[in-house]
């Protein structure tokens, strides 16, 4: 069977189910929006979630695609970049558990996080901190990372 390698943003989705939209108002987030945020904003959001039940999932469109293909039985790998933190560890461990070859680099910034607020009506509001994912550079890649793979899937944002 042909093997597929994906390359893209290695993000951790922090899913936050909401009973009402007061948290969105508190954080000044327009319902249904997607905003790129900086590290200070990420830290403030994390602090505001203390005591609220959240769920973690790996994220990023290329990463999600590789996960889906792996669940369908395909032989896949993923190239991306996380931080040296708990979210980065979660990302790597999740991919290893799902049989995805780990070609994940480590950066100095925190792992990218997509805080996803899910309103009671199902509407999603995103705050995305790209972190280390956005620091992946061509010179960090090697031909060895791509050897043995027939197909390359690249996240559109990186092209």
Radius of gyration from CA coordinates = 16 Å
Strand order of the largest sheet: 3-8-7-2-4
SS-based class: alpha/beta
Number of strands: 9
- % residues in beta strands: 25-35%
Please give the share of residues in helix. Answer: 10-25%
Q: How do the SSEs run, as a string of H and E? A: EEHEHEHEHEEEE
The count of helical stretches stands at 4
Q: For the report, how would you describe the main beta sheet?
A: 5 strands, mixed
What is the straight-line distance between the termini? 27 Å
Q: TL;DR of this structure?
A:
With 159 residues, this protein is α/β, with parallel strands linked by helices. It has helices at residues 22-26, 39-48, 61-71, 86-97; strands at 3-7, 11-17, 34-36, 55-59, 75-83, 101-107, 112-118, 124-129, 151-154.
Describe this structure in words.
This protein is an alpha/beta fold. It is built from 4 helices and 9 strands. A 5-stranded mixed β-sheet has the order 3-8-7-2-4. It has a 4-stranded parallel β-sheet with strand order 6-5-1-9, with helices on one face. Helix 4 (86-97) links the parallel strand 5 and strand 6 (101-107). The protein is globular.
How do the helices and strands line up, and which of them pair or pack?
Elements: E1 3-7, E2 11-17, H1 22-26, E3 34-36, H2 39-48, E4 55-59, H3 61-71, E5 75-83, H4 86-97, E6 101-107, E7 112-118, E8 124-129, E9 151-154
Parallel strand pairs: 1-5, 1-9, 2-7, 3-8, 5-6
Antiparallel strand pairs: 2-4, 7-8
Key structural traits:
159 residues, five-stranded mixed sheet, 4 helices, alpha/beta
């Amino acid at each position: 069977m042909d093997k597929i390698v994906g390359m893209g943003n290695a993000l951790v989705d922090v899913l936050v189910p909401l009973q009402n939209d007061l948290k969105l108002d508190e954080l000044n987030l327009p319902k249904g929006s997607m905003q790129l945020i900086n590290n200070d904003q990420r830290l403030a959001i994390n602090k505001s979630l203390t005591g609220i039940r959240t769920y973690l999932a790996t994220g990023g469109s290329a990463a999600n695609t590789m996960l889906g293909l792996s669940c369908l039985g395909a032989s896949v790998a993923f190239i991306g970049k996380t931080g040296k933190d708990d979210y980065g560890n979660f990302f790597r461990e999740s991919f290893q558990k799902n049989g995805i070859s780990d070609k994940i680099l480590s950066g100095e910034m925190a792992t990218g996080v997509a805080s996803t607020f899910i309103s009671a009506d199902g509407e999603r509001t995103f705050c995305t901190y790209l972190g280390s994912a956005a620091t992946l550079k061509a010179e960090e890649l090697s031909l060895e990372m791509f050897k043995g793979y027939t197909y390359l899937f690249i996240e559109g944002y990186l092209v």
